[in-house]
Amino acid sequence: MQKIIDYIEKSCSGLKDDQVTYYYKKKLLDGMSQRADEMIHAGLKDEKVILDLIADEFGDIEKGFGQFLKDRKKQQRGKFMKVAFPVGGLLFLILIFIAYFTVSSLTSAWDKTWLIIVGGIFAMIIFYFSFAINKLCHMRRVFHPIARVLIIGCVMLFMVFAFLFQIMMLPDEFTSWPTLPAGVALSFVADLIFAYATKQKFRTISFFVYMPVIATMIYIILAAYGIISWITGWPVILIGLVVDLLYIFSIVMSNMKYFMYSKEAE
Amino acid sequence: MKRRLTAELWDKMHYLFRDFNDRMVHVELSYDFVPDIDALKTVVICAFEKIPVLHSKFVDTKLSTYWQVMPYDIDEVFTVSYPDDMQAAADAFLTQYIPPESHIQMKVALFIKDGKSKLCLIENHMCMDGGDLKYFLESFCDNYNKYVNGGISPINYRTGSRSYDDVYSGFSKTEAGVAQRLFKNINARDDHKFPLTADNIRDISFIARKKFSEETLIKLKAKGKELGATINELLLACYFYSIYELAVYPTSDKMMISNAIDLRRHMNSVADKGFTNHTAWMQCAVPERGRDIFETVKYVVLSSNKFKKDKFMGLYGLPLLNFGYNILPHAASEEIIKIGYSNPLMAMSNIGVLKGELFALDCKEPVDAFISGAVKYKPFVLLTVTTYKNVITLSMCVRGNDEDKKTVNKFFDLMEKNINTIIGD
């Protein structure tokens, strides 16, 4: 134990002697003592060898201090979040209701101001979902599909609010429904971006499936707003298939150089 | 918190081989002195601490697999005994089985008698192959010497990635791209097999060995030069010829024997890599037995050259295996892989030359050394070849009965006869 303490003191001599450094040294001492106990339990008796093994395992202690500070910050943030999340959520809800009653009583537009409550709650859910997505992204890949579902949920919530907002605020409420197919298309786009950014398995298959769906949604939106005809505008749907074919072509071309190389090698 | 290690592709593949062999790799080093037992214990513990997979248990949850690092005691890893019959004790130790669910994956034993000793070691093939085991033993002996003579802590072992895709590290980007697209499974099935008896629950594991003198090796080398064949190819030709004779297969039959190849040949350096498996099979085929052993040698050289010309030798099917293990839960992927994978009925693994100076303890080289592959379950067989001090040792580890023992020994006699024919004795 004394040798480990001496080693830590010697290795940390370049660090400022303050409370944080003390915590770092304490953490090191705990970790190293535990490893030393394990080695002694395994039957290792030579103290010098134990110390050398531990030193080798823990690496550069001064360099490790930077990581310790980062972890500590993260830990403190985590602790803060644990309190901030429920308290902040509650305060935000109170704030939404205050805003709702204030705006409603000032404008007397009670039939429209409920959007403040719905929008506020949706915003809060999206905010919590974003945190969850961020956390899930740093977890094992098996959890990534949950993140993908949450991303789709975020986009859909936003688009549903946009739809409700349009119904309430636009003079012609029937022009707002294309927002929903737009939401479907945007959800798929967001999911594709996530799949490619995080190199998900079968992302290519997702691309092939999503493209015709996205193209169909674009057709519906354009036709709904009268930009194209419902009857003659259907070739827009084919654009999705064309994009798929172009993507297949690009994959084949990029694989072709390997195929050609393989033939040359033969 | 429990420490976990990733189960790499080859770990999973060797786990799948549980139906074909016991996955134990055997080492026997004989010294004419007794090494320092306490020092050996220290060196073994350091090896275990530096290579945590050696004290891990393999966990199969059916959905996925991983290694879980476990506590251990040196007394269950390293044993010292003073038997009356050292060879029998060594054989009994070497033919034991360590299940992957055990919390240690390597066992070491020191047998002492009349001032002489045998250092025996068995390890789970899932942790490392013969190539890395050879390197491990060299590091082990080097660490022991430095510790005993210089007081330097015996912690100098290679550590790093155990991933299968390190085999692509020596390729250019384009070449790696080509290699990573070799989905084709080029392994063909061959029903010719070693003539062993049917399985029986009374079967026991045994190691059969045959040594060939330094003189034989010198003559084989000279003959190899003359015939344009390597020692490996000459031995393989003898293997083929002996099987034709032993099993009385028609001479016109096409036959295949798989030859283990070290995939590290594709890597620039393994200095920053962990101990793992990088071995694949190369199927060597002869269209017929040949009129004499020399014609068989010709066929073997032709078949072998075809592989040697291939830049991506041994890398076929690896991406397919990786894909298989990645897309489905572990239990399902095993079933799928079993459909496409055919384990070679007859195989040969040439571990190569064991350099005495690298296995020396206290500056004293072993008087004998040999490494052998896993105990195969019938009808599979593996012939392992090691060369130490210019003496070739052929070994075959089989789970069988006395009749099988006789068959294996008859096979070795035929090997001897055919080798003698080649060298003209």
Layout of helices and strands, plus pairs?
The complex is a heterodimer of chains A (266) and B (425).
Chain A: H1 2-11, H2 19-42, H3 47-58, H4 61-107, H5 110-137, H6 144-169, H7 179-197, H8 203-224, H9 235-265
Helix pairs in contact in A: 1-2, 2-3, 4-5, 5-6, 6-7, 7-8, 8-9
Chain B: E1 4-6, H1 9-16, E2 24-31, H2 37-50, E3 56-60, E4 65-69, H3 74-77, E5 78-81, H4 86-94, E6 106-113, E7 116-124, H5 130-150, H6 173-179, E8 204-212, H7 214-227, H8 231-247, E9 255-262, E10 279-286, H9 293-308, H10 318-327, H11 330-340, E11 346-354, E12 368-372, E13 376-377, E14 381-388, E15 391-400, H12 402-423
Parallel strand pairs in B: 5-6, 9-11, 11-14, 13-15
Antiparallel strand pairs in B: 1-4, 2-7, 2-12, 3-4, 6-7, 8-15, 9-10, 14-15
Helix pairs in contact in B: 2-5, 7-12, 8-9, 8-12, 10-11
**Secondary-structure class of chain A:** mainly alpha
Shape of chain B: globular
> Tell me about the biggest sheet of chain A?
none
Gap between N and C termini of chain A: 63 Å
Overall average pLDDT of chain A: 91
Structural class of chain B: alpha/beta
Any idea what the radius of gyration of chain A is?
29 Å
Number of strand elements of chain A: 0
Largest sheet features of chain B: 7 strands, mixed
Instruction: Outline the low-pLDDT stretches of chain A.
Output: none
The ordered H/E elements of chain A are HHHHHHHHH
**Sequence stretches where pLDDT stays below 50 over 5 or more residues of chain B:** none
- How much of the sequence lies in strands of chain A comes to under 5%
Overall form of chain A: flat
Description:
- The complex is a heterodimer of chains A (266) and B (425).
- Chain A is an all-alpha fold and 266 residues long.
- Chain A has nine helices and no strands.
- The radius of gyration of chain A is 29 Å and the shape is flat.
- With 425 residues, chain B is of the alpha/beta class.
- Chain B is 36% helix and 24% strand.
- Chain B has twelve helices and 15 strands.
- Chain B has helices at 9-16, 37-50, 74-77, 86-94, 130-150, 173-179, 214-227, 231-247, 293-308, 318-327, 330-340, 402-423, and strands at 4-6, 24-31, 56-60, 65-69, 78-81, 106-113, 116-124, 204-212, 255-262, 279-286, 346-354, 368-372, 376-377, 381-388, 391-400.
- In chain B, strands 8, 9, 10, 11, 13, 14 and 15 form a seven-stranded mixed beta sheet that branches. Chain B has a five-stranded mixed beta sheet with strand order 5-6-7-2-12, sandwiched between helices.
- In chain B, strand 6 and strand 7 (116-124) form a beta hairpin.
- In chain B, helix 2 crosses helix 5 (130-150), helix 8 (231-247) crosses helix 9 and helix 8 packs across helix 12.
- The radius of gyration of chain B is 21 Å and the shape is globular.
- The interface between A and B is medium-sized, with 22 and 28 residues.
